[in-house]
Please model this.
Amino acid sequence: MEAAVSCLAEHGWAGSTVAVVAERAGVSRGAAQHHFPTREDLFTAAVEYVAEERSTAVRTLFQAGPAARPVVVEALVDMYTGTLFRAALQLWVAASNEEQLRPRVTELEARVGRETHRIAVELLGADESVPGVRETVQGLLDMARGLGLANVLTDDTARRARVVAQWARILDSALT
Model:
């Protein structure tokens, strides 16, 4: 799964095939196709698997209890700046042009989006029964996705750090 995500992030949809992934993973093409008959099966399963792993990892970071809001915001933004986000972005772009892939990616994105929102609410200690809180948390995730996009072409680390710090202050005010 990691090999598929890495290929997708590095080579895009056009350059990522079952054969390329099989070679990187050190398995035969036949073995890969036995488990994943189509390229769409392979890459949607890979992105879903790695997204679940990343969600688990983020939750694990905070098992000891609540963390400072800037730390939580940074962890949430980091979900959108790594290899998984690059791979998911390639999958989204491919789905925008390929009818057979679009419904799978749309459903996957909805599921991953709901889970990421749940994680954010949990880690931020947000009370969504308060008017505007749900939208504030979603705004954070939308902003994080935008920072991830900005990071695709250039290293945006310095600006991203300032924006993350500001969003942590905004959330302190909005969620308190």
